Amino acid sequence: MRRHLISAADLSRDDATLILDTADELARVSDRSIKKLPTLRGRTVVNLFFEDSTRTRISFEAAAKRLSADVINFSAKGSSVSKGESLKDTALTLQAMGADAVVIRHSASGAPHRLANWVDGSVVNAGDGTHEHPTQALLDAFTMRRRLGTLEDRRVTIVGDVLHSRVARSNVLLLNTLGAQVTLVAPPTLLPVTVESWPCEVSYDLDAALPKSDVVMMLRVQSERMNAAYFPSAREYSRRYGLDRDRLARMPEDAIVMHPGPMNRGMEIAAEVADCARSTIVEQVANGVTIRMAVLYLLLGGETQ
Amino acid sequence: MSEARNVSRAVLEGPDIQRALTRIAHEIIERTKGAGNIVLLGIPTRGATLAARLGERIAQFGEVKAPVGSLDITMYRDDLRLRPARPLGRTELPPDGIDDRVVVLVDDVLFSGRTVRAALDALNDVGRPKAVQLATLVDRGHRELPIRADYVGKNLPTAKSEQVKVYLEEIDGRDAVVLIKREEDQ
Amino acid sequence: MTDYLIKGARILGGEPRDILIRDGLVAEVGGGLGGAGAAVIDADGLIALPGLVDLHTHLREPGREDAETVESGTRAAALGGFTAVHAMANTSPVADTAGVVEQVWRLGQEAGYCEVRPVGAVTAGLAGRQLAELGAMADSAAGVRVFSDDGMCVSDAVLMRRALEYVKAFDGVIAQHAQESRLTEGAQMNEGAVSGRLGLTGWPAVAEEAIISRDCLLAAHVGSRLHVCHVSTAGSVEIIRWAKSKGWNVTAEVTPHHLLLTDDLVERSPLGSYNPIYKVNPPLRTREDVEALRAGLADGTIDCVATDHAPHPVESKETEWSAAAMGMIGLETALSVVHAAMVETGLLDWAAVADRMSYRPARIGRVAGQGRPVEPGEAANLTLYDPAARTEVDPRGFASKSRNTPYEGLTLPGRVVATFLRGRPTVLEGKLA
Lengths: 305, 186, 433
Ligand SMILES: [Zn+2]
Prior knowledge:
heterotrimer, A: 305 residues, alpha/beta, Rossmann fold, 2 domains, 4-stranded parallel β-sheet, 9 strands, B: 186 residues, 5-stranded parallel β-sheet, 28% helix, binds zinc ion, uracil phosphoribosyltransferase activity (chain B), transcription (chain B), transferase (chain B), PyrR_bifunctional (chain B), PRTase-like (chain B)
């Protein structure tokens, strides 16, 4: 493992497998009554969130606390950051506090790369702009592996706003590393113009992709996108790219439905699909804590590099 | 120019190991009054294999089925920061757990005692045994903590600089305990 | 005034000649010249070029003297071999009145390192709504001939048409920063494979090309002069080539950085990923674009190199990418970058470098006494350049107040040894005189 986890592209197949294997063992800890491990005692993990994301922050916080790390939540709202303090000054402050790891969520793509220049500790990307969200991809891969056994040659269809999705970018990279076959499905407006250079297939036709999918991952689509003419209306989007009961029926019987959350029920996913037995949405949340424990352990649980 | 090289010498061969385990199994049955309330917990990787072997022998000699499990202590080690992060071993407790049982921890080599200390911490988080005992195939001395084994296959005097390696059929394809010494050649 | 005798300089890369400078003029050019009382400069191995002329410089004064001043910027220019720079209008206050352009012009005179030719804003306050007093600026002491809303594109087609027409009265030229604003809302870098991977909003080539096409057609329609600023795409080169083939009065410039650097530096560079040192407007493009720009400059489709020297204080670049300011400094590295991109590749010889960096920009800007051949009777604006030197770029040694160079740590060919402004050395032995 490298010092930081900033992009899913940083992970070799061995690295990624080590994280998933570690998470497998840690999942057993989550099942027992004492969930806490002493491993990161005396280590400090800072959650530096420039964007509101209670669910991701809580997930990282729970992971760090279960490993006995000291956790400092540094929310940019209402702090010196919102009064114009630069990312660099914030980084220097964290550095002075002796942060062993900084978990950063930022609306600017690449902010974690910049932060890594200014702190000695490990930087963990908890979502940067429209770039990446590697721990989400790891927890998705973990969830898939637990349901499907392996990712090798599994067909994963990712549907929705790929253009603005950090989840999609990280998933395409990681799933490709782990040997899965990825197909992106979206209206052409919501795909990057050079998507053909990505290591995946691309389709505009959800119905054609569904029968060939072991996993269908629905991405959140913000209805504001229609104001920027990415699609005409929520209704049309949902009709062409939403996952409803009829489409679920077109998937192979053992295929699973995933969503990174938060969901727009009725937009990209119908409520009855979200809540069905083939949906892993609740598992994904639980697996999020486990995979983040694995990442923090592997970054901080050894010698300081 | 002086050049260092490793010189290794087998101190236990396959039959010696078999005999040592048989003896330990008998001692466990005796000391725990029939082994009816024990759980064997091996410390991965080789301690877990040894625990399984001891379980078979206890079933054979004592005619009781002693539950066997494994206890990974990686997350409890006090020397994590000396090496890159290690992959985790498996913790697998018997279905009935360890509460009110006599837990016999099984490890391949007893050295500083730090592994056992970590194992005691780990045990604490997974249940409340009635008593904890320790079985080891080799005790090579040099303790750094007030810890001693209840069952020892072989006491092996070593220099601190030497290395003891245990090979087991199930993992390594052969049974042996090897002492590795670094020698300076002229 | 001291006379100077330059011994053995290769004018435009030709055979060694002596150049005698007297009373601000090139007095004599020839072999074995003797100049009684003249200071002798040994120019063995050096190339003599006409003083370089930059059509596109941000000197930041008035308003952002923390980033650059007329004095610091013209010192940087002199060290880069320039004898004239065009100071862009996006200052604070904007250079949209005779008062501001005269102030900038006067600051240039006082500093004395370079001829400073102010560029006037096309529209009042660069707001794109109503024409600035173009005539007043033209008639002022600054004698403005180049007008630009640089940084902002004159988007309104009617306003652009009127501006093109209006400046005909005083032989002006509109220098357009071609950027369709709706297509570049929130844009961060060239739209392509790299922006797609990095999740940075793309800046499509078509946003530049669409405006250039429209402006060429407008310029043809009203029979006026159009100058296209910092061309950055292969498509733009094609469009300009086509416009020129029609005989239309269109000229264009390219920056040194667009001749050398590509957008993949944003993803992977020795200076780090997402390093805003590479954030610039227009953005760095692809290898294919760079090749097309070089070819365009070589065949004359693109008339000249202009630095778009854009100083920014450190804190404007030590940020996350999207928060960073756009622009890079370039005066002190321009000739070396052109040397690397165009001369070492065999695309231009030194005579052509003189054409693209001195003659043609001076002609476009209507700068009298600049961009003239090194011949007896001409104003002694010239640059001595050592083509054999190789220098690792170290921004700490720059005269510019800012350090935002993308070339830090890079070894570039050549070195400016001396610069003469109307017979007076501004740089000698590579240092400010
Ligand atoms: Zn511009």
